[in-house]
Amino acid sequence: MNGITRVVLPIGVNAVQSVNCYVLADGDRVTVVDCGVWRPDLPDGGLAALTAGLNGAGYALGDVARIVVTHAHIDHYGLAGKVMEETGAQLVMHAMTDLDCEKYRHPDTARARRRDTYEDHGVSEADPLRSYLDSLRRVADLRPTHVLPGHGHPFDDPAGRIEAIYRTKLRRLEKVRQAIAAEPSSVVELADRLVVKAILAHQRQLAINETLSHVAYLRWSGEVERRTRRDGVYEWYAVGSH
């Protein structure tokens, strides 16, 4: 696209091989959308890959005037501090990004919070799946024609992709609903039964998180409820069953 150059930066973390950085023409300067991961094992922290990408787009590192971070995952914002030090660029992030960054600043606290959540396998009053599906509809309403993703190749027909994702999520939601109706279960039992076998071992946490989001959707739809087992773990059952 005119004025936009995609730069593929190497990552190699948790089976994520690369992340897309987008270089946007901004007058005689440049805006960078996402900037890659900080690499403490490299002398320059991994800055060389970003610099090479900028050079390929016709810019120098010193031309960067603004860094836009789409979300607070280390592969998208890890190098932001280094780029700011080198260029004096302005940093733009979502107002609530700080909440996501807490897990990197205070990893022990974040792990403890996650452990507490998993111990009882409860569901907060945030309904993340419903929020995600709503966001997909909002994007569809904008009628985009081309998508520049954070990972992988740009693609057309975003409406078709949104519908495919929507159908997949609803199918998985139905499987969770049916599984709970058939047998009251904890979130971990549901994740192990429905999701974990299809993913890599180190992504089990992601499977549990996704299952939690589906259970939350069903709970706030009034279709399932929870009760406490003798061991203190929550199990989920279909409303109207015993």
Q: List low-confidence stretches.
A: none
List the total number of helices.
9
Instruction: Give a count of the beta strands, DSSP E runs of length 2 or more.
Output: 9
Q: What is the H-and-E element order? A: EEEHEHHEHHHEEHHHEE
CATH topology type of the largest domain:
Arc Repressor Mutant, subunit A
**Helix/strand/pairing category:** alpha/beta
Mean pLDDT: 85
Distance between the termini: 58 Å
Label the CATH architecture of the largest domain.
Orthogonal Bundle
Helical proportion, percent range: 40-55%
How much β-strand is present in the residues?
Answer: 15-25%
* The CATH fourth-level homologous superfamily of the largest domain: Winged helix-like DNA-binding domain superfamily/Winged helix DNA-binding domain
What is the class of the largest domain in the CATH system?
Mainly Alpha
Large-scale geometry: elongated
Radius of gyration: 21 Å
Number of domains as seen in the coordinates: 2
Sketch the major β-sheet: 5 strands, mixed
Lateral arrangement of strands in the main beta sheet = 1-2-3-4-5
